[in-house]
Amino acid sequence: MLSRTADHLFWMARYMERAENTARLLDVNYQTSLLPQSAEAVAQAWRGLLSISELTNDYARLHDEVTARNVMEFMVSESRNPSSILSCLRAARENARAVRGALTTEVWETMNQTWLEFNRLIKSGALARDPGELFEWVKFRSHLSRGVTLGTMLQDEAFHFQRIGTFLERADNTARLLDVKFHARNTEFFGSGLDSETKEVDFYHWSAVLRSVSGFEVYRKVYRNVIRPEKVAELLILRPDMPRSLLACMNEVVSNLQAVANDHSDDTLRRAGRLRADLQYGRIEEIMATGLHAYLTQFLDRVSDLGYGISRDFLMPA
Fold this sequence. Notes:
This protein is mainly α.
């Protein structure tokens, strides 16, 4: 496959997954902001979201104050933000258009229709009217694009590069979500002797986090007890059967990398395999003992390095 074609397919999938994950991040922040808490705590949560998305400086160039409305508009419909949902869906559609011949009609029409319909929703005021409903729509369209890809495309190199892009992006975003949300509740995680009101707020906080990754029912099925932060972390980092966990994502990245391996990709495949092995044989107690923030920061660095290796080995013209 031409490296240019592989590049478009890889980034088409990454941008669609990024749009979904941005919607998930915004949705959990929006839901938790409705819980009883101080205005400063709410503002801090929105600042944390900008920080973990590495958008603080870009946001500051356009807005003087961090408010829920400004952050949501900036991350949903701001064309000057390259990571907004609008920008991601546009980039996904443009990458799909560039390799129209490598896609089935159903995949292309899904991408194109998503972009056109999202613009219509934004112009109709859907974000101000009901943010939660808009975020659900974005998630549904992402699910639809993956389902159409699985159901209609030949499982050749084009398919594998899309899968690599999807799961590399998902691993990155799951790690970011965990990091920002554990920081937001660090008093609960390290503290003891909580009063009943704090425990109640904490329950709703972690419920919202789990729902943001479609993991609330999964958590109840696996652990069958009250929601505990370390169990949330274990579910989203180490469970191979949880679709959005870091280990599940790396399993997919490695298997699809193996399917497209070439003469230059041995080192990249080794790095991906080692990262997967660290997750596969890791224990949540060890991760917590060394510090979750440090662990997730290192994971994000390794995923970024892996993305560069994939670009170097497969996507950049020789």
